[in-house]
Amino acid sequence: MKTRLCELLGIEYPIIQGGMAWVATAELAAAVSNGGGIGLIAAGNAPADVVRAQIQKAKSLTDKPFGVNVMMMSPFVEEVMQVIIEEKPAVVATGAGNPGKYIPSLKEAGIKIMPVVASVAMAKKMEKDGADAIIAEGTEAGGHIGELTTMVLVPQVVDAVSIPVVAAGGIADNRGAVAAFALGADGIQVGTRFICSTECIAHDNYKQAVIKAKDRDAVVTGRSTGAPVRALKNKLTREYDKLEKQGASFEEIEALGVGGLRRAFEEGDTQTGSLMAGQSAAMVHEIQPCADIIKSYFDGTEAIIETITSKLK
Q: Which pTM does this prediction carry?
C-alpha cells in the first residue's frame, strides 16, 4: 500500500510508531523501521546526551529511516533539537507544544517535520509554518491527549490542510486502519499496540497489564490541570482522581506522578507506576514481533473493503 506518506518518508507501509516516553527506545524504533514502517525514539524529558546516544544506537540497529519524537514541554528541548540537527534522523514528530521556531532549521538539515495536533486550528498553523505532514491524534490515544475523537478530528484536518495527514488514536487493527484511510488519512500512527511487541524493552508486567486491559480500563486524569493524560487505571490513577476531586493544587497533582513512567517501564510497578496506554489496549491480546504487527494492519484490508462495499449495495 503506497500513499503520500510512503513517498514522503521512503517507507514500505504507511505506519508510524508513536513516540511513547520511556517505551519508544532505539530498539523499538529500529524494529518498526526494519519492519517497513517508521519508528520514533521518544525524547520525552531526557537530556540531549541521552537522546544522542539513542539516535546513534538506532543507527547501529537499522539502515532504514527513523525519527525522534520531541515533547516541546521538555526543559531540554533547545539542546535536544540541536542534537537532532547534528545527527539528522529522517523525521521529527513533536507534541505538547508548538515547534514552529525550530521548523526552518530542521528543514534546512533535511529533516521532515510532523507535529502531533489535536485541533484543526493547530493543523493549519503547522502547515503554514512549513510542516511536511500532520499527525491528527484523537482523544482515544494514550499519554497526553486532546478532546476530539479520531473519527471527528481526522476528516476535519484532512479537509483543512493539503499536506499528508496521519490518523492516530484508537487504531488497534486492520479495521481501524481501513477506517482511518476512509477518513482521508495518508497513514496511521500506532502506539499502544507496539508496547506489546517482542522488541519493546518495557517490563513484562507493563505488557501484561495492556493485554489484560478491558474496554473501560484506559482512563483520563489531570483534566483539572489542563494537561490530561490517559493511562490504565490503578492505584496511581485513583490517587490522581482523589486529589482532583479535593481541589488539590497543580503542584500537588504533578508531584504525585513524578517517576511514574519509570516505575512502570523499568520496575514493572503496575500499581503506583504510570501505565500510559490508549483505549485500544482492550484490543491487544498478544506479544508479537514489530514486523508481524505492522503486516497485521494491512493484511486482509481488501476483504474488509469488499465487505463494506457489499453492505452498501
A: 0.92
